Amino acid sequence: MQIRNAQVGTGENLLAIAILPPLMSRNGRVALIVAALVVAVLAFVIASPGNDDEGGGQAAQTTTQAETGGDETTPAETDSEPAGPPEPEVTRIRVRGGEVVGGPADITVQNGDVVHIVVAADAPDDIHLHGYDIEKPAAPGQPARFRVEADIEGSFEMESHVAEDAGRDPLIARLNVEPR
Question: Within the chain, which residues score under 50 in pLDDT?
């Protein structure tokens, strides 16, 4: 504890007790606070989940399946328990300025497959998948997310209601469900 004499305006001497003397300068404290804020923002950005609008610049990504011939097995398949069915890939579609970037997507699946489609738009829109009669809103930063069990065979159009109302081509994607 530090004790020092202090002069008051009337000339009297008072004892002042400084319990916690400053350990660093004012500029040092400001720099420490700024550094803490930068660390907090970086931690938030790193910990936050990815955005579905991130498509790596691809307009539409469709599911593809690779088949291998023969009865070949890899060591990984024999050493571990068989995994469940693979998670279906997500088809990402971006609508910019009322137009589908890269043109309408062509999605082909087999009856019984689960289809994931995410439609990101730069303006508010309503996206409708005909045949399954599912309609979802899309807005900047809030893409329309479709998860559909493809249990109806045929060809089904996904359309933008805003484009349709404006007299433009509303086609965003075509979902083709083939028999198994």
Answer: 1-3, 6, 8-9, 11, 13-14, 16-18, 20, 51-77
Per-residue pLDDT of 76-121, as tens digits, reads 445 555 566 667 789 999 999 888 999 999 999 999 999 999 999 9
74 assigned to some structural domain: no
Give the domain CATH number at 120: 2.60.40.420
Q: 176: which residues sit within 8 A by CB, 6+ positions away?
A: 106, 107, 108, 109, 154, 155, 156
Range of the domain at 10: 2-47
Q: How many distinct structural domains can be found in the chain? A: 2
d(CA 159, CA 74): 43
Overall residue count recorded for the chain in this entry: 180
Same domain membership, residue 172 and residue 92: yes
In degrees, rounded to 5, the angle at the alpha carbon of residue 49 between the alpha carbons of residues 48 and 52 is 135
With H, G, I as helix, E, B as strand and everything else as coil, classify residue 44: helix
